[in-house]
Each structure stands twice: as structure tokens, then as C-alpha cells.
Amino acid sequence: MMSPKYSKMFFVCFALVATFCRQIHADVVQGSVSLNSGVFDKVIEKHKAVLVKFDETYPYGEKQDAFKEVAKTSVSQPDLLVAEVHVADYGEKDNQDLAERFGITKEAFPAYRLFTDGNSEKAKASFSGDALQADSIKNFIVKESGLWLGRPGCLEMFDKLVPEFIKASDDERASILSEAEKSAQDLTKDEEKLAADTYIKTMKKVLDKGNSFIKDEVTRVEKLRSGKVSDNKKKQLGDRLNILASFQLGLKDEL
């Protein structure tokens, strides 16, 4: 049995190693930049849209993994910058002034704020969804910024047609569907043709059954994906869910 002296030393060493590992983990976020009080305004003011995550000094775990996925996705969108502000509640309390400026407490970490059009004084929107879900954060960005973030299986030109389709009357929807079918004829890659076919079939079903089809279809596909299916089939179903998410986002805009 370990003596109290060595037991204490062990736990101190363990804590130091854990902190070191967490620091390394926090440093590797592809597609994200770190902001502090000295550069916050300068950076925000130079970008069309900036998603800022206020968090503890060395964030880790599933919520940080979700943030990493969002940051990685943002690389392909030149008008979006993803950033972190690490707020310390010890020592010199780095960036605590920024957290207080936007009314953020450590209990709310990770707290997301979206800044647009170079306005660093006031955030356009605050994220209130599930920080464990990268897709929820992405949908928040798309809805509040109007920028396109390419989810796997989605096509930009069709994602831009979906909100128009959702808002339109039945006659107008038929016209948008026809536009989508014409656009699909210009595609050359098999994966793009497959994705376009999913958009078109979904539009046809909505025309036939109404907006309720989208929710029912999400439930059906999620059930299939959670069952015993091959990795390839699971990916196909995941891509379909991403496309359906574009329709869901359009419906939320209508509420």
C-alpha cells in the first residue's frame, strides 16, 4: 500500500501531467485563432463574420472536440473566422475583462458569440444550442451569418435553393424544383449527382406531403443509421441527414 507521502506526490504529479496534456490538446485546433484583450477588436473589425468561443484556459473533452470540427469546417469559408478566447480565473486573470464585457461567466463555458460586419462592440447572436453537437453550432453560424458551411454530402448551389423552396408557395416550389433539376444536369461527378438527386427527391416529397415530411424523414433515416448497417451505408445515411438538416434550417427560419 502506498504511503500518504508518496500518495500525495503521485496525485500532484498526475495533476501536473494532466494539465500539461490538456494544454497540448488545447493548442491544436486547425482553423482557429486565439484572441486576447489586446487584439480582440482589431481582429473582429477586419472580418465579415467571426465565431468566438469563450472558454477555460485549457479546454478539453467532447465539447472541445465539437469546436475542433467546426473550426476545421470553417477553413473552406473565406468570410468566416473561428476564434477562441481563453479566460483565466487565477493569477492575472487573462481575458477576464473580455468575458465580463460580453456578460459571460465561467459557468456558461463554452460560450459562443457570433460577430458580423466588423462590429466588435456587440455580438450579433449568442449560441444557445447543444455545445456537444458540431452540427448544431454550424447551423447556428449558417442561420445567423448567411454564410455557407459545407457539410458532408451537401452542395452549395442546392443549399441556397432550399430556403427559397421552403418559403415559396406550391406553384413557386414547382418552379424551384425545375431549376434544381436543370442544375443537376450540369453536374459531372457521381457523388454530386447522388447528392443532387437527394435534394430533388426531398423537394418532390415535400410538394406531395408538405413540410411534415422533413421531420418524419429525419426520424426514419436516424433510425436506419443507428441500426446494423455497413460503414459505407452509414456514411450515405449521414450525408442524407446533412441534406435534410438544410431543409430543417429553412423551416426554422420560417418560425
Automatic annotation (TrEMBL):
Transmembrane segments: none annotated. Residues 1-26 form the signal peptide. Residues 153-247 form the Endoplasmic reticulum resident protein 29 C-terminal domain. The lineage of its organism: Eukaryota, Metazoa, Spiralia, Lophotrochozoa, Mollusca. It comes from Elysia crispata. This is Endoplasmic reticulum resident protein 29. GO terms for biological process: protein secretion. Residues 30-152 form the ERp29 N-terminal domain. The keyword Endoplasmic reticulum applies. It comes from the Eukaryota. Keywords: Endoplasmic reticulum, Signal. One of its GO terms (cellular component) is endoplasmic reticulum lumen.
